[in-house]
Specification:
The structure is a homotetramer of 135-residue chains.
Chain A (H helix, E strand, L loop, with lengths): L2 H21 L1 H5 L3 E6 L2 E7 L13 H15 L10 E7 L8 E12 L2 E9 L5 E6 L1
Antiparallel strand pairs in A: 1-2, 2-4, 3-6, 4-5, 5-6
Chain lengths: 135, 135, 135, 135
């Protein structure tokens, strides 16, 4: 990819990101940012705030799921469309705490026709895995 | 249970509910209400708002997960405490739309020592199942 | 249901059971018996043998999965037909030991068109839960 | 790694494989072979036989689960020991047919203390994914 194409792809990703924020007040509310997007692979970032956490300063599992779900949806090009009986399996590996910067990265595991399987990994600023979701 | 005990239990549930709202800005933000609470069994209610939905007026999966997760956490008496490697499996069965009134009900499937397995079912105002979570 | 219908249903269940054993050498190999069958609900039985177990006399997880999977397949009337990307979640709750008599019972949790969700519970002769599968 | 170490590692893997077959009649029964073993990563092979399949010549899901479970157990160095409430999620992607040669490969996704998360992928002789298990 030469420099011009690279700039175009980044520009596209940013436009899609803006569009996504406009369409999803939930994603917007939690301050999720789109960093990179390629076919089947998306990276997002979110900083844990006081209003996402409990008294122990740990982020609510629902907020982490929301971020992972958005990352998956974006990767599968089906954001906001959900197949009936779609199943997501999330494993919480380590608590995310206030001021942690969480990165979500999705990878396409398998794809055939309109069906697909994606793994999303959430890591903190120290590279520790926070949660893994399969969708 | 006589009437006095029944009133006491309801009164306790309400106090716990208020406490929970104070402790969890996420639950408070989505307007989740605690209806009933018994050992291992909890019922909650939430009305789908515009700011939970996308352009197709369908509720974000992350908001439904958040409600189910709160219901589970409450039922397991471990709200806001999360076991390492805890796993949740959610299945989306039908979209929830704006103005839908969603009820979450948790049931204890299995318990031994500090380990337990809970099923949470989300249903809409017509009694249709929206999502099922096992945690 | 009068006595004649009851006898007929039992007779049908037995014929289906024989047919299933003929069609599935795997089920036959592990000695799984069909006890009762109703629409969406099936009960099976299996006794843990030496050749299903390890040195610690505990049954292999794969054998328990096989039994649960057969019970689910029978309940969904789709035995030996498998949807692409079908997902099964199994939780092992207590080891099954040699000479334990395991009962599998399936319940239909949700159904729409050709999609469905079933829970299968495996219990031992003391009524203790051995494993739960959602498929 | 020089040639001598490489030979030793292979020799060890083979001894462990023989030991495993002796200890697990279930694995032995299905003809699962151990190909390679490294810390956290194991490769196995199995050929689909008539007695693993149904009339449509497709392998029973329970046999595929058994192979994946053995691969996981070996990778986690805990074969035949099972944690209470351990959860396995399997997704069936494509049927395996008689005479297919299935390879199982496990990868360690996350590890802390005695807890760990492993992915096992089953592929056929054409490199197509048959099933994915997370345990």
């Amino acid at each position: 990819m030469d420099n011009t194409e690279s700039v175009d792809a980044q520009s596209l990703a940013e436009r899609v990101g803006v569009c996504m924020m406009d369409k999803s007040p939930v994603i917007h509310h939690w301050g999720v940012e789109l960093l990179t997007i390629e076919p089947g692979s998306v990276t997002m970032r979110m900083t844990i705030r006081e209003d996402m956490a409990n008294l122990h300063r740990q982020c609510h599992g629902g907020v982490l799921f929301t971020m992972a779900d958005a990352c998956f949806g974006f990767a599968s090009n089906s954001y906001n469309e959900r197949t009936v009986a779609a199943s997501c399996d999330i494993r919480f590996l380590k608590p995310a705490e206030i001021d942690d910067v969480i990165t979500a990265h999705s990878v396409e595991v398998w794809k055939r026709g309109r069906s697909g399987l994606y793994d999303v990994t959430l890591t903190n600023q120290d590279g520790e895995k926070i949660a893994i979701i399969r969708a």
